Structure formats: C-alpha cells, structure tokens
Predict the 3D structure of the following.
Amino acid sequence: MGINDLDYLTVALPKGKLFSPSADLLAQAGLSADGLEESSRKLVLVNEQAKVKFIISKTADVPTYVEYGAADIGVIGKDVLEESGQEVYELLDLGFGQCHLMMAVPEGERRQHLEDYAHTRVATKFPRIAERFFSEHGMQMEYIKLNGSIELGPIVGLSESIVDIVETGTTLRENHLVEIVRIMDATARLISNRVSFQMKFERIHRLVEDLQEILKKGK
C-alpha cells in the first residue's frame, strides 16, 4: 500500500465529524469506493477501477499513516496536524470542520492578564500547541494530558485552566467556563506524504487542482 503501490493512490480518512464531508468532497473529485462509510467494518476499501484505496483511521493516527507512507494523502484538522508534529506536506485548506483552539477557565477565576495564569496547571489534548503558545508569552505552565472530557479538569480541581477545541461554545457554557484567549483557528487540511508527492506528483497535483475548482464553485 502507499508509496509502494505506484498504480494506486491511498487516502487516509479520519473517523468523526470530518469523515462525511471529506468522503463527499473526494467523491466529487472522482475518488470513491463502494461501502466507504464511517461505520464500515472494513478498515481498508479499494476501488480497482479508479485505482484508489481508502484507510479509515482514528483521527489522531491520520498524520502518522501519511508521514510513514502507509497512505499517500489524508484529510485532517489543522489542530491535530499541528499537535502531531508529523513531517508531511500540507497541500490545501479544505475549509470545512471550522473550529478554534482556546484557553478557558471557570467563570469565577478570571484574571486581569494572560500572564497572571503563569505557573498554573492546564489540562489539554494539545500539550504541544499549548506549550508553544504559552512559551511565546514567556509563561511556564504545568501540562496535564487528558484524552476525554477536558472540561472536567478545572471542575474536579485537576487544573486551573484548559486548552481545547471549541466549535459553538455550548459545552463551555454548560460547564461554567469562559474563553480567555483564542490560540489558533483550525479547518480540515489535505496532507501528503513527502515521497508520494514526488513519485505520484501528477495525480496528486491534479487532485489538488480539482478540489480547488470544486471548493471555488461551492463558495
């Protein structure tokens, strides 16, 4: 699979909210396969006619599959891509899956300046991005990596703040948390393995151009 299969283009798609819009967009560009659904029991689906393979992956693993060449290209949120630190090419902003990464604290714990939170504990799924952000502001923090409900951190006294993804802000409000600072905006991105990009340049480049046309018409 991947780089070794020069006849095929292998695509890693993330489970979750990005799956359907990714699959729909790629189908418009001629990349599809029978049974390509998030609920599929098959984790690899092949369209022999179109010479395309799909890997259905856990979101956080997409950049890894692409970096190591198990997949030639993939779709992933900018937030997950930045946190992964994987060595891949970012080819295109696909525009969907809009959200932003922010810092939030309990409603009664607001402090006047961002720097006033220095040397406190922050719960997050994104310690790499958080550390880079706070370091840029000259702040040392203690990072507590969580994989589940980040909002629990301050509620149970595990941390003073959280760094997490927000789409609507409803979960924050329900848990009496307030956003203090916006760290970065994130949308879905098309990424490519570096070697695949060279060896399958024509096909990947054509796909990027087709997707750009589709996105332009969509606007």
